[in-house]
What does this fold into?
Amino acid sequence: MLTEVPHDHPLLVQFREDPYPLYRYLLSAAPVQWNDVLGAWTVARYADVVSVLTDPRFSADRTIEGSPEQQIARSMLVSDPPDHTRLRSLVQKAFTPKVVEQLRPRIEAIVKELLDAIEARGGEFDLIDELAYPLPVQVIAELLGVPPQDQANFHEWSAALAASLDPLVSEQNMERAIRGRDALHAYFRTIIAERRGHPQPDLISSLVAVEEQGERLNERELVVMCNLLLVAGHETTVNLIGNGTLALLRHPDQLARLRQAPDSISVAIEELLRFDSPVQLTGRIAHQTLRLGDRDIAAGDWVLPLLGAANHDPLQFAEPDELDIGRNPNPHVAFGRGIHFCLGAPLARIEGQIAIAALISRFPRLELAGNPVRREQITLRGIQHLPVSPAA
Ligand code: HEM
It folds into this structure.
């Protein structure tokens, strides 16, 4: 899928700026459609997206010629069973809701520190730079055991890798992604070597111990695993906090509702995940010829489940384009479905809940102070800069 398509191609611009009109069209008129520009089938409807994500005839192994993951160990995200099962089971325990709940006091403390700094400085601030980005980065770095002084370097490396998740990646961006990946791998190899002699109470040290027992994890897989967790922790939750806050600021009635019932934050977060999903699409490859909707998919074809479209499917959600922070049940697919369901979902949820609840409680009159600047990526939908004002 490494194709040179002009960056300003209308389809790509539409996907990036406001994909929802396109999704509405696909949902009603072309639920499973071959897309020549993307070189893949787009799948829009909820039921079809769920069926692709839970059908073993589709492979998650989409490492391709020239992709950063080619020729190295595959992360769990792009592995099929039995490798997927083995890799995921090694870290699953660290991310269960119960274990993640124990991080609550620390997450609250980081949020408080960030909000204190914003308040002390006074005036307008950039919600992304000052809260949405630093929070998840700090949390995943502490969990893995990455020294704080090294964190500045990750920003560029992980952003470069995130751009390579798009369905079309320019050669230039692919080269940047490969450089970012190599830099991260070299970095983790150093940290791993340090931990071998001096284990710490962190996830990297636990994984090093597993690797040293042999059998279950080799060193390359260990490096790739650290990388996946670090990048996932850097590039996704930021978009939940950014997109979610923007949605609330644009729907003052819903923001007022949340302020009146702060305990409903966990239900509200699910709606924010559905309404403007941080991960808009993912990819699979058909193992064999099969039928999807009323279309025939050939073996080897790429299929793109559009999570963002499925989350706005009127066949599944009443008034899908309305933000309703009390929507319950809310079986959105923002974290995917099936065996690859987001490992970090409990962590992302708790970070989102704590950050947004604390933000609106600290600033009772928060408002937009300028136009949001969108990130360029498509797969990861988010905002680069979100100027807001406490309007005190
Ligand atoms: C709001 C934030 C997040 C969203 C919307 C999100 C979304 C997703 C989605 C949609 C998938 C499935 C992709 C697929 O099926 O192809 C996924 C997988 C994954 N996510 Fe997240 N994610 C978020 C945060 C995190 C965090 C904080 C972590 C890290 C700790 C994380 C780690 C992972 C991992 C390791 C996988 C692969 C799981 C597997 O292949 O079994 N995610 N995520």
Q: What stands out?
A: The mean pLDDT is 93. The two ends are 50 Å apart (CA to CA).
